[in-house]
Structures are given as structure tokens and as C-alpha cells.
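Sat 14:20. Reprocessing the chain from the morning session after the first attempt stalled halfway. Input below, unchanged.
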Amino acid sequence: MNVEYTGRHYEVTPAIRKEVETGLTKIRKILGDRFETKVILAVEKHRHKAEITISPRNGPLVGLAQAKDMTIAVNEALDHLEKQAVKYKARWELKKRNARKSEEANKWNGHSSHEDIQTAVGLTEKTAVPVVVHKYPAVAKTTEVHLVRSDESVAMRPMTLEEAIKEAHFRDRDVFVFRDPKGKVMVLHRARDGKMQLIEVP
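Finished this time. C-alpha cells:
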């Protein structure tokens, strides 16, 4: 564990080092091992200040705290840092998931990294016509399923088809479930071409 310590009007003790390294072990479980750590411990007018900076791939995270005792200051700075690390990881995973979704969407839209095979079709070399054959994977990869309960996609009151279409657009829903004035369950579904389809539930 590569940790750089700086003491300002304060001597960094083995007990404090152990405290810092125990706290960093938790953070490493969240973010992995690939970051440098700088610890600045200072005493100013009987106030103990701890500043712990870690440098993961997308920018530094800083934990700051001050207290009457250096151990308390260090632990507060580590707690602050741990919360930031959890947020950082959540943001990074969301970014990765969105990138994967757009990659999958591109595959479905024909922009995949498929192999193109150049060939020619015809009886003789003179009459042959060049043709590009697109080779796609035999089985499309399935994406992870995330179940989310949503009240936004269900109408609470009966409505006409026109009202339901307006409501689906307003709520920005691709699927919208509603009852018509006669009480029949209907499902509006936005297809890939952007057109709304109406499904009558038997």
C-alpha cells in the first residue's frame, strides 16, 4: 500500500499510520488497488487537521476533517472519503452501463463490429456483381435484466385513446397501460420506428 505521509507541526505515529491504512483497506474494497494516497496531518492552535487524498482514474477524491484529537480527525476524514468512493463507483458503473447499452443499441441498428465478407455473384467473371455479405453473431447477447416498479407507466383513471397518447408523450413512456371509458385494459407501445401501437388486453 503506497501512502505518502506529511506532518505539519505533528509527528506521524505508527498508531496513526495503522488507523489510516485500516480505513484505506475499506476504500480499496470499493475502488480496487489502483490509486495513490497522500495524507497531510497538521496541528494548528490545538486543532488537529487530517487531509487524505486518493487519486483513482477519473480525478482525485479528498477527505477533510478537524477535531481535538488526531485519531478522531483521521477517522472522520476516512469516513468522508469512503462516502465519496461509494458515489464515485456508482457514477462510474452507471457510465459503463450506459456505454454498454448504446453499444447494444448500435448492434441492433446494424452498426455492430460484425465481419464484412467481400464476394461476387455471377455465372462468369465478366457478369459477376460484387456483393458485401454481413456476418452477424449467430446468437444475440442478452443484456442484464433490471426490474423497476413504476407508477408512471400506468394510468390511475379511465381515459380515451387520444388522452392516453398525450399522457404517454407527456410522461415520456415507451409503454403505457390504461383503461378505456368502458373499463377495458389497453397497452400503448412505442415501436422502434417511433410509431405508437395499441394492444388490446383480452
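The first helix runs from residue 14 to 31.
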